[in-house]
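ok trying again, last paste got cut off:
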Amino acid sequence: MATSRIEHSPSPPAQPPVAQTPGDRAARFQKLFGDALSHTLRTCSYSKFSSCFPTPAKYAPQTLTSIWQQIMTKVEASAKKEFEDIMIERDVVAGLNELERLVAEANSRKKSGVEVREPPHTLPPERLFLAHLAPYLTQTEIELEGELKRLQSENEELLDGIQGQQEETERLVGGLEAFIRDLERANEIMGNEVDGNGVKKEIADIEQDFRAAGREAKL
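nice, full thing came through this time. structure:
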């Protein structure tokens, strides 16, 4: 019985572990803190400290000196302890070493002009999701733009048709109004003629009556 063999694409080599030994950036950061602390301690000299306590400085200078030394030692130790705690808690050395590695890698790529692609399985889910969606979204955008242009063309044709119908309606209404005006003028003329014939008939009747009355008077 033959056994099926599934071949997997070889995984790229894992990233080298970040060294916890301070690199150049981490060492400079630690030196910066040390220089700042030393400068702060130097500003608080014994002469400035003793000027705040003139009486003990005059009558018990050794005691005051001892107190000043204890305070300075306490401040220095406390500052260094808090700095070390923050370095460990925030994993500052590893972060600065990783930053230094990325900067060196970027500079090397820039000088060589070679683009190194990241392995897909090392990319975050958001980038993978967008990468898979990009072709579909691009095609959808093209289809929507085409549909929008088609609808715009149809709307322009409909608008032209509506404007043509409007002009035709206005022309027909204008023709009907002119026809109605012609009918009104014809009715006025016909009415005047009818009224005139009636008057003539009444005058003729009156004349006939006068003639008949004249004949009866002669008899």
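cool. The chain is about 80% helix and 0% strand. Confidence is low (pLDDT under 50) at residues 1-18.
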